[in-house]
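Supplementary Methods S3. Input chains for the assembly prediction are listed below.
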Amino acid sequence: MTPARTVAGLNLGKETAIVSLAYLGAFFATFEVLMPLQNILVPAFDNRASLLFLPHGVRVLAAWLLGPRSVVALLPGVVLGFVYAAGWGAFEPSRLSAMAVAVTVPATCFFLLRLLGQDLRPAPDRRPCWPCIMGIGLVISMISSVLTNYAFGSAPQDYIAYLIGDMLGLFFLMLILMLIFRGLRHSRASGN
Amino acid sequence: MSEISKLTELRKLLLDMERSMGLQDLSTVERDIYYAASDHTTSAGAVKTTLLQEHALLENVSRPTFFRALKSLQGKGYLEQCKNSVRGYYIVKVPAR
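Predicted structure tokens for the full assembly:
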């Protein structure tokens, strides 16, 4: 293996570790903290879908930053998340389909958007546009929700629940990251 | 894209969100200069004024507007002139609030 390929492989390995860990962190925060809260605060919402699905934010941001490499980077995290939630049932055809949707749809949507003339990929000469990321996040969520719930044979209200959970998850993940970065900036500034 | 530049791009996105929410006090030109300076300092440390002026985000900004915004960024603590080098070099700083 040439040195350049070795470096590229190491970089992909690093990206995969970071992204999958971030995905799992968001997954556990959602299912171990937010969903119990949801069940207390909204008991009438008898549904297994989270109304604040933070992992969707990780999927969208990973696809935005890494492009097609996000498919590989997300895969371990998504698989482990499904295994945690469903045990060996994670390898049933419907869940395998859901995993494939989760890792491929985000990068595909960014790619298709580029083909349509709207390249949102980060670049030094391009201003970032967070509402655009929210917009593509909505498209990713709609496509993922339709494909995933079709695979599961879900009820119509599940489609809506997934959509709400994904969009709120993306927005709140970005908000949390924004506040973390602000906090780090201010603590560094006061330490100067 | 390197690790640091990916982090820089994420930081720029979240700065954009901050600005939309009214949590940041930068004008459009000031923000673009800060973005341009952030892009260059990932690779070089300090950034030269001429390099900033040549950045794609600032190509339509007039010289007076550019230097007014640069001075404003210094005043707000986002940029600092390099003390131990020739004039015209700036370092990206973290503003204290």
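The two ends of chain A are 45 Å apart (CA to CA). The longest helix of chain A spans residues 3-41.
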